[in-house]
Structures are given as C-alpha cells and as structure tokens.
Design goal:
about 80 residues; alpha+beta; 3-stranded antiparallel sheet; two-stranded antiparallel sheet
C-alpha cells in the first residue's frame, strides 16, 4: 500500500495525492472544498458523495469544475 496522510478525519492514500498534485489549481480548490464538506456535514448531498449501488460501503466523491467531472472512489474503514 502507499503512504497515508491523515487530513483531520479523512485519510488520503499516496495514489490520491499523486492524482491530486497533477490537477489544475481551481480543481484542487474544489476537491478540498468537497472533502471539507464530507468531513463536516452529517448528510452530504448525493451530488458530491454517492453510494455505489450493489456495493457495501463503497462511495464516489464527485467534483465538477466547469464541464469537467472528476470521480474518486472512497470507503469508510
């Protein structure tokens, strides 16, 4: 497994950080905003955090910037 960075209650794998570092600054800001939203709200709108049907505990984080949509798989440990 890759190295892990703990950002508050959110743990980021090395693979995510490699992906994140390649993004444009405005996309990075939106990812950070979305992760903060997920970390602080009791109910996160499905637009940003959606359960993947047919799975147990697998979710996708959704980030939309302009006409580009980014999706990152996530789960609770």
């Amino acid at each position: 497994m890759g190295e892990i960075e703990n950002s508050g209650n959110i743990i980021l794998q090395k693979y995510y950080l490699e992906f994140f570092n390649k993004l444009k600054p405005e996309v990075k800001r939106k990812f950070n905003w979305t992760l903060q939203l997920i970390a602080t709200l009791d109910y996160v709108p499905e637009k940003y955090f959606k359960h993947i049907s047919g799975s147990t505990g697998l979710f996708e984080i959704r980030v939309e910037v302009g006409s580009d949509i980014y999706r990152v798989f996530s789960f609770f440990d």
